[in-house]
Amino acid sequence: MAGDSTTIARPYAEAAFDVARAANALDSWLEALNKLAAVVADPQVASQIGNPNLSDKALLNLIFGVAGEGLSVEVQNLVRLLAENERLVVLPDLARLFEARKTAAQGIRHIQIRSAYALSDDEQSRLKSTLKSHFGADVELTVEKDPSLIGGLEVRADDVVIDGSVRGRLQQLANELQF
Question: Which domain CATH number covers 86?
Fold first, then answer.
């Protein structure tokens, strides 16, 4: 389902990004989308999305009321379009994709690192430097510890995966030996 939601959210995120960039308002759009994503993720509001007894207008009034003042007309129009197409549930994915697009436009690659062991600040700094030269862009690292890797690292940058973990190597060996 998460993949479906991302697929549905992607064209909305790209269109929103284009509008925000043209208006030189990427930061305000991101802030508004994150706020709206939190609103629709709230259990009380989420339970009303898709409620056949609640009109789109009442639902929009609820969302805009909880979100508060400060939403631009364009952002409100996006929310109206999502409501009209019964796509309000994709707002969290839309916000995430918008942020990824904004980061990429700034020349920064967001890279997720999974390590079998905690990485020291020095190790993270060296890794960041190596990845910066590898990808040819500034990098922003998110590091998490995952003991199931047994040893080594797994690096994810968008669709690129570099699996240098012991678990990955064992899986590759098992595939080659047809286990």
Answer: 1.10.520.20
Ordered mean pLDDT values, 10 residues apiece, the chain (179 residues): 78 96 95 94 88 88 88 94 92 93 86 94 95 89 94 87 91 88
Distances (CA, A) of 38 to 72, 84, 116, 131: 17, 20, 32, 32
Same domain, 72 and 27: yes
Q: Which domain holds residue 149?
A: 107-176
Q: Evaluate if pTM is beyond 0.70.
A: no
Query: Does residue 89 share a domain with residue 8?
Result: yes
For 48-97, give the DSSP string: TTT-TTS-HHHHHHHHHHHH-S---HHHHHHHHHHHHTT-GGGHHHHHHH
